[in-house]
Amino acid sequence: MSMKSVRQLPEILRSPFCIESSDISMIALLVAVSRSYGFCKIGTTSNWRRIRQGNQSASAQSFLIAMNETRVFYERAFPAITQLSLDEQENLFKCYFLKFLVIDNLYRTRKVWGEIKRYFMGSVESCLDTDHPELWLDEGQGGESRQTLINCMNAQVHAQFEVVVPAMTRAQITAKEFHTILALVLCDFDSSSELSDRAFSALDGIRIEVLEDLQRYYKEKMGLQDYSTRLGNLITLNHAVQECISINAEYATLQMSVFDVYAAEEKIRQLCL
């Protein structure tokens, strides 16, 4: 795993998961759980941790870790989904996992770098340098097709950026809106999904609760009477993330079939295709 240091930044703090009250709003619960996952909480300037240049090999390892962390994250935040059948839980996970990663990395990138331009966070401590895609692979990786693979990966990243970065920049989401959209991607299923009525009912309940919490936030914390623009931007961002996942699937199919990317990681292949 080859990683080069890019920049020193304040340490990203990890707060222990601790919820004492059983009477707690869905958004408050999501906020509490997010702290255990280590979302970008910038500490004092005396505490530093290196943000490192990641590559495909490092990303694969981060991906596997994130799979376990994300499942626990959602199960703790929304215990109702643990009451569904194992097949339904697995179907849910396959649908929300990649969307979660996109939103988390977008938000983390803006918090760390101030903008989504050259460096893009891929985990708590690593990022991609979009100006130098040749660094995304280990030396020798890709063989004779190395440059073609790099070009393909670069095209994928820029195609996704064109869709999702403008939506993220326009929305300028707050921490509360970030937590809300993480909940919404869990609930974003159409009627053709292979889920039971019980599952749809649970997801509808989560969606209604987080949106009601968000509206109270707009009115009471932000002092907004007309919050249609902010809510519209959030919905647009959610749609952009969905399109981003579709783009990822197209390129992932090409990379895995032609270049045999993630050949030894069946779990990653199943989620990306």
UniProtKB/TrEMBL annotation:
InterPro entries on file: NHR-like_dom_sf (IPR035500), Nucl_hrmn_rcpt_lig-bd (IPR000536)
Domain NR LBD, chain residue ranges per copy: 25-273
Superkingdom of the organism of origin: Eukaryota
Molecular-function GO term, any one: DNA-binding transcription factor activity
Keyword field: Receptor, Transcription, Transcription regulation
Database matches in PROSITE patterns: NR_LBD
CC annotations in GO: nucleus
Protein name from the UniProt record: NR LBD domain-containing protein
Native organism: Pristionchus fissidentatus
